[in-house]
């Protein structure tokens, strides 16, 4: 009788163990299903957005560390654009990389033996900026027309040049760079090509 009770107890424990195994297997299947639905590119995309937002915040607060953070963001963006087949945008990120390097260097305390203070553009400064964007933007647009298959050469050309100008202004702590950034970003928002990208950047 006692032996029969022990056998029943063993069978019950075995059934519980098998039920636990099935439950763990069920959880494992659910985990695999969730992982398969998560696009790793989207995760990398989101992380890139966070790094770029952090860069913007740090530079707005005039922290020099914002430049190296921005460099990391540019490298991540270049990789993201390359994987997505957006090679022109990837090249732009690499060009901006040198601009960010200059910004990082120019914000160092010993640069030109003087401290750069925050200031604004005067009328003549605005004319120079707008003229530079206009001339070089048109030049880059023509290069895109003749040497690439860009579907929006003028928008790409002018926004690329404007982005470089913005980085230069930021490196000189000219606060008006944010005005140009807002215009550039607004064109990216309404650009159908960027809507198709489905990216967070």
Automatic annotation (TrEMBL):
Q: Which InterPro entries match?
A: NMN_transpt_PnuC (IPR006419)
Major subcellular site: membrane
Please state where this protein is localized. Answer: Cell membrane
Q: Where are the transmembrane segments?
A: 43-65, 85-105, 126-147
Q: How does it sit in the membrane?
A: Multi-pass membrane protein
User: Looking at the UniProt record for this protein, which Gene Ontology cellular component terms does it annotate, in alphabetical order?
Assistant: plasma membrane
Q: Which GO terms describe its molecular function?
A: nicotinamide riboside transmembrane transporter activity
Q: Which UniProt keywords apply?
A: Cell membrane, Membrane, Transmembrane, Transmembrane helix, Transport
What the protein does?
Required for nicotinamide riboside transport across the inner membrane.
Q: Which family does it belong to?
A: Belongs to the nicotinamide ribonucleoside (NR) uptake permease (TC 4.B.1) family.
Full protein name? Nicotinamide riboside transporter PnuC
| Native source organism of the sequence | Francisella tularensis
